[in-house]
């Protein structure tokens, strides 16, 4: 997923903030990776990046996200994305439903 940050004066260029599988996709684009692949190879090739799971910048490591999929191998890129999407969504929902998350949404910064 991705969202546009708040508009600022004098900036005509549109910038988006990628999170979840869209943010992971950026890491995959830069990596020399082929499928099928294993969880271990993904973490090693991508150097276990922290992946933002919401527009606020909250992150989780790729290894932690992969551990929640309970899958050791991915035949295709799409299979990887399909496995990780619910993990990132669940984490995003938990962060938004927490007391701290609710307080953050009320503050202007």
In short:
This protein has helices at residues 21-30, 39-46, 62-69, 77-97, 99-106; strands at 2-3, 17-18, 37-38, 50-52, 59-61, 73-74.
Strand percent estimate: 5-15%
Q: Compute the average pLDDT.
A: 84
Class based on secondary structure composition and strand pairing: alpha+beta
Shape designation: globular
Multimeric state of these chains? single chain
Order of helices and strands: EEHEHEEHEHH
Q: Any low-confidence stretches, pLDDT <50, length ≥5? A: none
Our count of domains comes out at: 1
Strand runs, count:
6
- What is the CA–CA distance across the termini? 22 Å
User: Strand sequence of the main sheet, in spatial order?
Assistant: 1-2
Using only CA atoms, what is the Rg?
16 Å
Total of DSSP H or I helical runs spanning 4+ residues: 5
| Most strands sheet | 2 strands, antiparallel
Query: Level of helix content?
Result: 40-55%
Description:
The structure is a single chain. This protein has 109 residues and is α+β, with helices and mostly antiparallel strands. The chain has one domain (2-106). The protein has helices at 21-30, 39-46, 62-69, 77-97, 99-106; strands at 2-3, 17-18, 37-38, 50-52, 59-61, 73-74. The strands form 3 sheets. It has a two-stranded antiparallel sheet. A two-stranded antiparallel sheet has the order 3-6. Strands 4-5 form a two-stranded antiparallel ribbon. A hairpin with a 6-residue loop joins strand 4 and strand 5 (59-61). Helix 3 (62-69) crosses helix 4 (77-97). The longest helix has 21 residues, at 77-97. It is globular, with a radius of gyration of 16 Å.
